[in-house]
Structures are given as C-alpha cells and as structure tokens.
Amino acid sequence: MRAVPLARCVFLMPFVSILDGAGAPSRKLLDEFRLPTHPQDKIDDYMPLLPALRFMTTAQHSQGIKDFGFLAARQMSFKTLSERMKTAVRHSPSLFVALQHWCRLVQLEGNLMHAWLEQDEHVVRICSAIAGTAGMPHLEHAQWVQNLMPICIVREFAAPKWAPATFAFQARYTPSAATQAVWPNTRFLAGQSASWIDVPVSHLSLLNPTEFGAPDPQAQEFVPIGTDMITTLNLLLPAYLGERVPNIREVAEITGTSVRSLQRELALADLTFSDLVDQVRFRKSAELLRQQDIKIIDVAYATGYTDPAHFARAFRRIAGVTPREFRQNTRTAP
C-alpha cells in the first residue's frame, strides 16, 4: 500500500490565518477537505498533506490570493519547528551540526520528508523532498514551507533576515514579480530534482550565538518514523480527536485508499478500526492526564467523548484503572 504523506498541523495555521483575515470560510473549507478544523489546538499532531494541498489551492483560487505558500511561509519562524528539532539545534555548536540534525530529524516535521546536504563549489545546498510526490500538482505550497524551515535554522546562526542566494522548487512554479521583489537578491529556480536553498560554505562554521551546552543525546538516538498504514493512522487520528472522529470510509478517503484495503491492513495487525480509535484515544488521554492542570472532564472532551462517564469506562477497559486513579498513580510515581 502506498505510503501517505503527513505534516504537522502547525504548518496549516498560517494558511488558515490568512483566510480568516480575508473573511473567507476557512472552517468550511477545512471540513470539505477532511482536515482538522482547529489546527491551532493540535500543532504537534499530524494532518494529511495531499488534502491540505488541495485545500490551499482551492482557497488560493477562490480568494484570488497570489503565492499563497509564500505568504503563509513568511509567518513561520524558528518557533514553528518541533520541540525536538529546536532542542537539537539549540544544542548544536555550529551551523553545520545544526543542519546535520535537520537532515536527521526532518521526519518529525513530515513523515515522508527527507533532507540532505550537497556541496556545489563555494555553496552547500540544503535539499529536501517528500517521497512519492514528484510531479504532483500544487507542491509549491509545501515547498515554500520545506525551504523556509532550514532558512529559519540558518537565521539562528547568521542574521534574523538572512536569505539564500538561490531558492529552488521541485515544482514547476515561478513566484510572481511582487513576491520576488521581497527577496531581491535571491534567484528562484523551478523544476529542480528537489527543493533546495544554498548556503555559503563559510557559513557552516558559524558558532551558536547562545549557550548551547552539551550535545543533545535524543537527536542522535532518533528512530525513523514508520510509514506503514497502522503507524500512519496512529499519527493521523489524534488531530481529529475533540472534533468529529472520521469513520473508516472517511479515513479511506483522507488516505487515498479503499475501505477494503484499510480493513485488510488492520486485520493483519489483529485490529478493527474501532479498536484502533480506542487505542489512539487512550494514548492521548493518558498523555493529557499526566498534565495535572487539565481537568478530567476536559480530557474526555479533548479525546472525543461527549459523556465523561463513557470516557471513564472506556479508559478503565484499557488501563484497568479509572482516569482519576491513573492521574493519582502518575502523581505518586517516583
């Protein structure tokens, strides 16, 4: 079965923000494309990338927005990156080490993303691609984001407004003259074998301007995220908790497969779709219950239960204890 590309919900937020500012029906559009309708509450959960690209393209055309990906990517900063990525960069003694961490941990930002460095004369290219998407339409939205992420890392070492000499798209796309004028010293290329930006080789030795401390051991121990369907569903479904959890037919649509294929994959793991949803809800509720400042009733609502008593029964069925007992045990654990 073909792997399904996912990306963190945080990357949907600037697109929604632009639409909201224009008075566009962003929530209706998100629901139409089976996307989480409140991405601001789920920044570290994962959304399906291909429906997101269709959402962005439809919104761009319906609202007459030029270079939607550029406008959204401009709202990104280093803070947008995942916590683990930010920690790894902050513990990097030099830009070169930080970029190595970027290449190693990039899957945290998108499950099918991969990144690598290529040296070309006096510059190093920071390249990225999303497996299985070459030739797909409307990839420029994603590729603005793909290239802005390493730019945010370079800016932590170089200067807050640093811009690359070259900004390359895998998509056959050229930014408008107005967009290019924002970065007058940057050359834009289209139809490349990967998306990339270039950095002078001399920049690689730039030292971390902060007290970076000891190397981050977690960055070195990163285990690649699986791309099988069960792992994909475990990553995808949490973004829909607290909203209407999609049924198996809707999940098949979201992932671009058939109900029968999904059922076959679940059966191979000795699961039903209902079992999988229950497990996803349990893991999310256990995570929230460890945060002592969140009320148990709010944990129930956040994981898709409208009846707290139903939540307590479902949780106990898996954990063997009630949510309250689980929280108490967590509080007293050494």
Describe the protein's architecture and organization.
The chain is α+β, with helices and mostly antiparallel strands. The chain has 2 domains: 6-220, H-NOX domain; 229-332, Homeodomain-like (Arc Repressor Mutant, subunit A), CATH 1.10.10. Helices cover 47% and strands 10% of the residues. It contains 16 helices and 7 strands. The strands form 2 sheets. A 5-stranded mixed β-sheet has the order 3-4-7-5-6, covered by helices on one side. Strands 1-2 form a two-stranded antiparallel ribbon. Helix 5 packs antiparallel against helix 6 (95-105). The mean pLDDT is 93.
Could you name the key traits of this structure?
334 residues; Arc Repressor Mutant, subunit A; H-NOX domain; 47% helix; 2 domains; globular
